[in-house]
Structure formats: structure tokens, C-alpha cells
Amino acid sequence: MTGSRRTHIIGVGGYLPRRVVTNAELAERVDTSDQWIVERTGIRQRHLAADGERTSDLAAAAARQALEVAGVTIDDIDALVVATTTPDLIFPSTAAIVQSKLGGAGFPAWDIQAVCAGFVYGLAQLDAMMRAGMFRRVLLIGAETMSRILNWDDRATCVLFGDGAGAVVLEQRAEAGGVIGSVLHGDGAHRDLLKAQYGSDVPRDRPDFHTDAAGVAAIAMRGNEVFRVAVKSLGAVVGEVLAAHNLTESDVDWLVPHQANLRIINAIAKRLTLPEERVAITVGIHANTSAASVPLALAHLHQQGRLQRDQLLLLESFGAGFVWGANLVRWSLGE
Ligand code: ACO
What pLDDT, on a 0 to 100 scale, did the predictor assign at position 20? Predict the structure, then answer.
């Protein structure tokens, strides 16, 4: 019986805070330009959470939409996972807070911290648990308020990120399709190339604690080095997940990549010989929303009616650590 269980995506949703910040607006604060940002990253704008709007609020909004698309309620859910690197608090988990905001109780709720790869990691983890029969219906959410951990005076990083949330409802069905398989990797040797210091790493006198003017923990990144490893690692993992399931580049209908940089996305699309119309590209309008970027891109494609049932989707992501991975999914929604 276990062999026939498959994890299907039966609902998808997204939420973006109302406030849109253009490159031109950022250029009023730091020494940058719309031209530099567009040429180097493809980013034109990002959404930023309002004061008082928390990661859990974004997550709950995306989850409500995914539940509605799935035609189920929070009472039909038996586990809830939030992938985030910008939790509301160190504890309790953002998942526990979202559970309560959605009016759920009783079922397990936990966070996954794999930075930008959080959703891809979460889908792999939950697929394994659901195939093993632990859960029947699960909410997986990627949600971030990156704006809260950015140094708004550092032009090298503040232009890259945005806030948002994406969510999927996963259902175990004895039916072919759904999540075909996943491959995950990590290499902590690169841990200093991209980080946001907080927690036990921060000494009491904070000698090299990266903070912005308000004293908030901020992202520090050696972008050029991150870029090179990201292209190499993602190029390899997309080949690996296809080969593991006896599939080839020509079987892929959609590449749904992490939305960090258009140049990285284009490099992976080229590696897969996929034309632009088969690639989900939201980095221009959402910027890098870390763990939210892949589910937000899925929600965007779904809302535009561009995904068809049984199409093969290749999801991939890469984040600080480094951690990276890919999932192969047959789309289960629609006709
Ligand atoms: N505006 C104008 N100039 C800038 C800006 C800016 N916003 N930012 C940097 N520059 C300058 C630099 O100071 C540098 O100037 P110099 O030559 O005088 O020293 C020059 O532009 C080139 O800087 P590079 O860092 O070499 O620029 P690069 O072409 O590498 O682009 C970028 C930078 C966009 C950050 C790129 O390296 C990148 O996308 N890296 C990968 C990011 C990523 O994928 N992260 C992973 C996920 S994130 C996560 O896990 C949280």
C-alpha cells in the first residue's frame, strides 16, 4: 500500500504586502540606479510588509488562499509547516502562530529553516512523511519578511530582497503523479559567504555583529562568490533529479526556479534547453523572497492559468549555508 501513496498539490496560494517599492525609490536612499539593478538582477520592484505586518500574517493569508483553491478548511489539515528564515520570534515557531491565526489546533506544526531552499526542503520532507503514511493533508507555507533583516544602507543587499508568502495544500492520494521525487544538498563550508547574524553566534559585546542603524541583525553577502556556486550547484542538481527518475530535459514543461537573480535563472534554463516561456519568472516583480519565492512563483503561474494538469514541473532553490535542492512534480490541479 505504501508504494502507491503519492503526494499531490491540491491547492496553491500567494500573498504580497500592499506596498510596492521600485528601484527608483531605493535609489533615493542608497547609491544605486534602476539600470544597475535591472541589468545585474532583473529586479524592478519588490513588495514590503507594513509596520506590524509579521511573517505569520503573510503566511496565514497565503494559506487561506491555498485552502480555498483546494476546497478544504483548516479542520481538514493534519500538519502545518512554515519554511522561513525570518520567523516572528525565535520561539514559538511561526508555524504554531499561523496555526492559531488560522483557527487550527491539535495537529503538529513546525518551522523549517533552510533559508531560500526552505520550500524545496519542506516539500521533500513532507513528501517522505506522507508516503510513509504519517499525514493525509498538509499545509506547506514559505513566508518571509526579508525587509526586517536588511541593512537599508547596504546597496549590495538591500536592492535584492522582498517580502511575501506562498502556500500549497498537499494531499496523499493512491493515484499516479504529484511529487515524483526530490534531491537535497548542503555544504556548510560556505557558511560565511551569506549570513544574517543572530542567536548564539552573537557575543555579548557584539564585535562583528552586522547591524543596520536601528541595531537590527542584517544580511551580509559576498554576492559574486554566492553567484558562482549557485549557478554550478543548481545546474548539477536539476540534472541529478531528472536522472534519478529516468527523465530528461525534454520532459520538463516548467522550470520553477528560486527567484534570486534573472541571470542565475537564465543559466539554469539554458542548461535545461528550456525556452523563456517555459520558465516561471517573478524576480522582476517580487525580488528575492527567500523561502516564499518558489511557492509564490507557483501561485503566480496558477493564477494566470498557465499550468495544466499532468505537466512536469522542476522546482529548484539555493540558499545560505549553502543548502540547495530540486523537486520534480506532476501538476495535479485543473482539467
Ligand atoms: N548599485 C550599484 N552598484 C552596486 C550595487 C548597487 N545596488 N551593489 C553593488 N554594486 C557595485 C559593487 O560595489 C561593485 O563595485 P566595484 O566594482 O566598484 O567594487 C560592482 O557593483 C560589482 O559588484 P558585484 O558584487 O561584483 O556585482 P555582481 O555582478 O556580482 O552582482 C549580485 C551582484 C546581484 C548580488 C550578484 O552577485 C548575485 O545575484 N549574487 C547571488 C545572490 C544569490 O543568489 N543569493 C542566494 C540566495 S539568498 C539567501 O539565501 C538569503
Answer: 98
